[in-house]
Structures are given as C-alpha cells and as structure tokens.
Amino acid sequence: MLSGPSGSGKSTVISALMRRRGDIRFSVSATTRAPRPGEVDGVNYFFRTHEEFARMIEADAFLEHAEYVGNCYGTPAAPVEESLNAGYHVLLDIEVQGAEQVLQRRPDAVSVFLCPPSMAELERRLRGRGTDAEEKILGRLATARREYGRAKDYAYIVVNDDADTAAAELDAIITAELCRSEKRMKAIMEGDRPI
Ligand code: ADP
Ligand code: 5GP
To answer: Which residue among 2, 14, 15, 29 has the greatest number of ligand 2 atoms within 8 angstroms of its CB, and so is best to mutate?
Structure first.
C-alpha cells in the first residue's frame, strides 16, 4: 500500500516502479470523482456515480473505502484476491483511512508513506499538475497536513525528491519484504523455492 499527500507523486512513482518490476499488479480503485484529462475508465480508476458507489458498498464489494476531499474512493476486493492468487504483488494507491482498514483485514500488507521533499514543493507540484480547481488544491493541502501526522504509523517512509530514486527505494522494500525469514520459510515449506 502506498499512501501520501495528493501531489506527492504516487502515480508518477508507481509508473516508474511498474517499469522496473513485472510481478506487480496495480489495484484499480472505484471513485466518484470526475476523470482528469487523460485518465481512462478501468485503467486509472473505475469512475462511478454516487449511487453506483453506494450499491458497491451494499454489495460488500470493497476491501476498504473512504471519503477524501468530498469524493468516495474504494478498493474492489475481488481483483485483489484474484491477483494475489495468481502470484502477483498487488499495489494499492490509497489514502490513510483506507490503509488503516486494509491493515486491520490484512495485517500482512506492507505500508509505505510517500513524502514530497517539502510542503512548498507539494504545493508547487499540485499547482503544476494543473488538474484541480483552487478550492480543491486548498482542500488537498489541508488534508496533507493531517496525513503527515499519520506517516509514523507506516512501516516505511520514502521521500519523492527524484522519482526514479523513489521507485528504486520502493523496489528495494518489496525485495526486502520477500526476503523476510517468515515469508521465505513459508515459500520453502510450500516447496516452491530452493533452500
Ligand atoms: P499523486 O499521484 O501523489 O497525486 P502525481 O504523480 O500526480 O501525484 O504527481 C503530482 C505532480 O508532481 C505531477 O505533475 C507530477 O508530474 C509531478 N511530480 C511527481 N514526482 C515528481 C518529482 N520527483 N519531481 C518533480 N515533479 C514530480
Ligand atoms: P486523486 O483524486 O488525487 O486520484 O486521489 C486522492 C486520494 O485518494 C489519494 O490520496 C489516493 O491515494 C486516494 N485513493 C485512491 N484510490 C483509493 C481507494 O481505493 N481507497 C482509498 N481509501 N483511497 C484511495
């Protein structure tokens, strides 16, 4: 799970990470927010109406869901299970409340908080992206200050100064997690790794 303030560079770093590793699947979330220019339904998000989103909650279709700056976001549970069963790592780009819900249901999930180098740089990136109205940018900056307070609850913190360096650190975290003795021993006991 990768969390971090809006504009910290999660999408950018995830793209760089996916170019480095072929064993990751990105979990496409559902959201009620409008698509940004260039965003494709089913690729970046499943863009849904509030009514459709509410029906998904009723059907217990989400691993987690949360509200963020006036919109709803949720992780569809079934594709996560399918990808894990197919042997992939699943990458969730989710905000802090959702990450907490996932950790309660899946304590084996690995949590990483992505920080921009500074608040001033975060504001520059949000404005530079040019996708949000002023009111939304102010909402996202106010939310960012609260999110920073949760960074210490994450297993890892990566600073996104240079995007390729941040992606290399994420890559290293995944590799280190795979080398954890409990995970290696499980793999060895299941007979799919040489000792
Ligand atoms: P998030 O997914 O966290 O909201 P984005 O990936 O959309 O953030 O990045 C926000 C803006 O910052 C984009 O315009 C992106 O090109 C830019 N950006 C991301 N990472 C960096 C970086 N390391 N250095 C400079 N600009 C960056
Ligand atoms: P954005 O609108 O900038 O794409 O995303 C806003 C915030 O929602 C980001 O912090 C992002 O990580 C988070 N987010 C995206 N998908 C999900 C999701 O499925 N669940 C939760 N809880 N947050 C999400």
So the answer is: 29
Give the pTM.
0.94
Taking alpha carbons only, the member of 50, 62, 146 closest to residue 98 is 62
pLDDT tens digits for range 64-104: 999 998 999 999 999 999 999 999 999 999 999 999 999 99
Q: Which of 8, 11, 12 to mutate to test the pocket of ligand 1 (most atoms within 8 A of CB)?
A: 12
How many C-beta atoms surround the C-beta of residue 164 within 10 A?
13
| Cβ neighbourhood burial of 151 (10 Å; 0-12, 13-18, 19+) | middle
CA 159, chain centre distance (Å): 15
Q: Given the CA of residue 6, which atom of ligand 1 is nearest to it? A: 4
Structure tokens at 166: 């941040």
Which is nearest to 25 in space by CA: 69, 78, 98, 64? 78
Nearest CA to ligand 1 atom 11: 125
pLDDT of residue 184: 86
- Count CB neighbours of 146 within 10 A: 10
Give distance in angstroms: CA of 11 to centre of ligand 1.
7
pLDDT higher than threshold 70 for residue 194: no
Domains of the chain: 2-189 (3.40.50.300)
Residue range 105-127, pLDDT digits in tens: 999 999 999 999 999 999 999 99
